[in-house]
Structure formats: structure tokens, C-alpha cells
Amino acid sequence: xxxxxxxxxxxxxxxxxxxxxxxxxxxxxxxxxxxxxxxxxxxxxxxxxxxxxxxxxxxxxxxxxxxxxxxxxxxxxxxxxxxxxxxxxxxxxxxxxxxxxxxxxxxxxxxxxxxxxxxxxxxxxxxxxxxxxxxxxxxxxxxxxxxxxxxxxxxxxxxxxxxxxxxxxxxxxxxxxxxxxxxxxxxxxxxxxxxxxxxxxxxxxxxxxxxxxxxxxxxxxxxxxxxxxxxxxxxxxxxxxxxxxxxxxxxxxxxxxxxxxxxxxxxxxxxxxxxxxxxxxxxxxxxxxxxxxxxxxxxxxxxxxxxxxxxxxxxxxxxxxxxxxxxxxxxxxxxxxxxxxxxxxxxxxxxxxxxxxxxxxxxxxxxxxxxxxxxxxxxxxxxxxxxxxxxxxxxxxxxxxxxxxxxxxxxx
Length: 412
Prior knowledge:
Layout: E1 6-10, H1 24-30, H2 43-49, E2 52-56, H3 62-69, E3 78-81, H4 86-96, E4 102-108, E5 120-127, H5 130-140, E6 146-149, H6 152-179, H7 194-206, H8 211-219, H9 221-243, H10 246-262, H11 275-280, H12 296-308, H13 321-334, H14 337-349, H15 354-372, H16 376-390, H17 394-411
Parallel strand pairs: 1-2, 2-3, 3-4, 5-6
Antiparallel strand pairs: 4-5
Helix pairs in contact: 3-4, 6-7, 6-9, 6-15, 6-16, 7-13, 7-17, 8-9, 9-12, 9-15, 10-12, 13-17
């Protein structure tokens, strides 16, 4: 086992967790004194010499890259990718790899700025012997992650359930704030409690590469459906708010909460997040009095889960830190009856957040349309425009976000 050569084809932040091939000259210099690491100019050298090969490339590019280098794969080698969407990855590997090559897939269910220790790591035995699968498991055990064995199909369904709509919500928040020319941490109504999670995680998502989210959203069929439903839930709830239809709004919100939180058996269970935790992580000065918010983004999330029949707790074993935090704040709202009643009252009677909600609704529908059309260029353009707007606060948001994630991991 110790004589086997491990190769990585690709570049980027997630790949560098495992010292991936990056820019050729820079890495040659960086690892010049390490005899155990060899840097190749392209993927042919990696494919010809490696016993286990990981393609660490964007989901959008996986077919093109495997088509280029797959035919050079060493006989009997084990090959896999670590994309967030396995359907196109499996198709590419089956299409372009020789038949005498084994396939074992992996996916670290967290971002590049999160310590992999204790985080879920999906392993998929697609076309391999048990011995080869065990070898891959042994190699990747160095990350200290919690390994979860799945099929490619169940992986894509679970990642859609736990990531796609979560990302859409935060992307839409960032889009709305930029449209209103707002830096939310500078506005007292967006500081403290639940607002801290919204601000920190929105900035955390926009601090990453656009393709991290585009591939999952556009290439995963389940994700498209869920993002579309989220936009529909946002729109429907906003219309009820605008029309002043309190009884209908309350019935819909509480029916969704009953289905997601009570029917799921969470009644009586401790909350994932507490007031103390929510108030601890702020990018701005916490005001003495909290401004009531209708929390359209949270109401729509639970409505979306309800409409799709998703029980979010079913996937906790392989959920991302972002999802656990987002679930924590939705649970915090829906399992506090007094707070939920205040939110419904605010939605009908208070117009403080109305312009924000309008832009948020536009944003949710815009992201959904972008995903439905499968337009990577449009996705990238939208993402990077908003990314540049918030960029100055990324370092602080990453630091605070890491602290938040540490706390939520201790409780889940």
C-alpha cells in the first residue's frame, strides 16, 4: 500500500487541501525540497504514473478534462473526482476511462476554509473491488473527516436537499443588499441574533469561487427543482404580505412549521442555536433594541421544504456547516411561538423591510431563472459583481464564520 502513487489533476482551493497540481512553476518551486511530491506540467504524467487519481476540477469541466487525460490512465488504477454533483462526474468517468480502471468517488461536504476534521466526507464505491474502496478510505482518512458511504444518486439528492436552496437563499440576500446599496452590518436592523447568521454566511458564500455553487445548482436536476420551489415560495409569501392576507399567511406558515419541525419529531428537543450564540457573532455593533423583521428568507425556506416533502434533519450526518447553521436559525424562529407570531404580525403591519423584501423576491426569481436556463456565464457574472461589492469585509466574515461553525459543530 505504501508503494502506491497518488495523483491529483486539477487546481483550486479545494484541491489544495490535498496539495493538488496548481500552477506548474509555482508548485515546482514550493515543493522543490520534498522528494515525495512530484509536479507534472499536465495531467498525462499524473495519469500514466499514479495508482490512485483524483480529478479536482469544476463540475462544469469534468467531462472535458477526463476526455483529455483519461485515456492515459495507468492499467488497474483507481480514479475518482471530488465534484459536488456526481451525475456528470460518473458520466465522464464511464465515458472516457478504460474498462480496466476502477472508480471510487469522493466529496468533502464543506468549503476550502473549513477544517476538514470531523466534517462529512462522502465516499462512493461506483465500480471497484472492496480492497480498492478500502484503500481510498484509508488514504482520505488523513483528513480526519467523518466518512459517509453513499451511491452517486443518493449523494446528489442529499446535496440538493442540504445545499442548493441554502445557497440560493444567501445568494439572493447578497443580491438584494447590493441592489439597495446596503452593507447590512452598518444598519442596526441587520445586527444581532438571526441577522448575524444571515450577514456572516452570505459574505462567506460570496468570498468563495462562483463555480463552487454553479455546478451544484445547474448540473444537479434535483437542485433545479428545489431552487425553483424556493423562488415560488418567496414570491407567494411576499404577495400574501403585500395583500395583507394575515389569516392565509399565518395558516400557510404554521402548516409548514408543523410539517417540518413537529412532525419530524423535534418537539421537546433542544434548539441547535441559542440566543447567546446568535448574539455572539456580529460584524457590527449590536443595538439595545432589536428591530422586528418578517424574515421572508427563513419563512420561504421552511415553506419550500414543506412543499417538497423534505425533512432537513434526515440528512444531518452528511450536511454542510452552512446548512446546519441555516437549519439552526429556521428552527430557532419556528420553535419559538412568540417570535413566530411577532414575525407574522410584522409581515402584515410593518413596512420597514418592504423594499428589502421586494429586491429579495426579484433576486430569488433571478437566480432560479439563471439555474433553470443552465447559464454558467450569467451565473458567474451575477456572482462576481456582488462578490466585488462585499469583498472588503471577507476576511473578517471568514474569521467570524469559522467561529460560528465551530460552535454549531459542537452541538450537532
